[in-house]
Amino acid sequence: MSKTELEGFRNKIRAELDRTVDFWVKHSHDQEYGGFFTCLGKDGTPYDDLKYVWLQGRQVWMYCRLYRTVDRFRTLEILQAAKAGGEFLLSHAWAPPVAGSRKCAFCVTRRGEAVKVQRSVFSECFYVLAMDELARVTGESQYQSEAVRVMDQIVHWVRVDPSGLGRPEMPGAVPLNAMAVPMMLLCLVDQLEEGRGELAEKYSELGQWCVQQILQHVQRDGTAILENVSKDGKELSGCQGRHQNPGHALEAGWFLLQYAVRHGDEGLKRTAIEKFMILPFHTGWDQQQGGLFYFLDVDGHCPTQLEWSMKLWWPHCEALIAFLMGYTETSDPRLLERFSQVYSYTFTHFPDSEHGEWFGYLNREGKVELDFKGGPFKGFFHVPRCLYMCERLLDGLLGKPQAS
Predict the structure, then answer these.
(1) Which end of the chain is more exposed for a tag (fewer CB within 10 A), N or C?
(2) pTM for this structure?
């Protein structure tokens, strides 16, 4: 592929990142109560004022990362919005304690009163990302201390005692290793370790544990990535055991690749690319209509999730990052070809040329099914993270400075 083609990718991605940031800066800031509106319609108009805590955390993290590393986003408006979002989280993210345990809410009212709590660790995980990145931008130690405090609580829930999550144990429930959990913890390890030797040492064993937990999902003699396996790394029976999520596998691929590069692990690098990028793309790409299926059944049964055949924004974001990162590390032309294939589908179908940002939910044929730009699960995260990372990777390939 020529330098001119890479320049074309880079210029389009850079422009799209600018449009995406502009959309959220214009429409999402709650100047009265703090935090961000995340339920935004096609044109950016809020259609609900509930605030989803994991999306608040994601937006704080993304704003801070852009402010810290990209010169053109180092603006007072972005910094002030990030700090206001962080203070909203500190004041309102934590729901009232139940049975002696306290968790982050899943969503709160516009003013910050808790509405719903989920029995998982993901709101807390994105709270940690927000606090740590805010500490890096502001230099205020309270944010980093809070990030470490909550990180240690998450690790306790995951590895020692899950009772604080509030999920009752049922006699027929099989304990499982869901890939999303070690993936998310590996993401947090990567965040907290950056430039901090003491934390890198503290969480070194945790990072190794996360990698091994993720590798358990390579099943059937290396021919499939399964989303759920048993605690000892065996395939589970039924729909739960056969469940595949191509987007998650691709995201895990670039998480593992980053870890492998940082630790000089060539074997893990090969596994990340071959098993978590090329393999799930081969099985997950819709050969008839294009795009990545949302869910699959490894044995070819119809998945029970109603949305299984839809094309969602975030798996395509993860695929773009994965293949471009893989190519950057290996110069393997297969990976650049896959990046180009995903790029063509993504930029043809998801961006909204009229109002900005991306539609998130397409039907199998690639037509917009749900036209809102933000909701309980889509906020200022997957699109800008993808564009930000791909711009930087392309800058590296083209020999351009990255802080511009």
Answers:
(1) C
(2) 0.97
- 286-336: per-residue pLDDT in tens? 999 999 999 999 999 999 999 999 999 999 999 999 999 999 999 999 999
Report the C-alpha gap between 279 and 249 in whole angstroms: 9
The DSSP secondary-structure symbol of 285 reads B
Sign of the CA dihedral 94, 314, 206, 232? positive
CA distance 73 to 8: 22
Q: Which amino acid is at 115?
A: V
Q: How far apart are CA 13 and CA 350, in angstroms?
A: 13
Give the chain's residues under pLDDT 50. none
How many Å is the Cα radius of gyration of the chain? 20
Q: Cα(59)–Cα(19) distance, rounded to whole angstroms?
A: 16
Task: Give the whole-angstrom CA distance, residue 121 versus residue 261.
Answer: 27
Q: How far apart are CA 73 and CA 293, in angstroms?
A: 34
Distance of CA 312 to CAs 37, 247, 301, 367, Å?
A: 21, 9, 21, 11
Cβ neighbours of 44 (radius 10 Å): 18
DSSP-derived secondary structure letter, 357: S
Is residue 292 a contact partner of residue 311, using CB atoms and an 8 Å limit?
Answer: yes
Amino acid present at 335: L
List strand residue ranges (DSSP E) for 212-327, in order.
218-219, 224-225, 228-230, 243-244, 296-297, 311-312
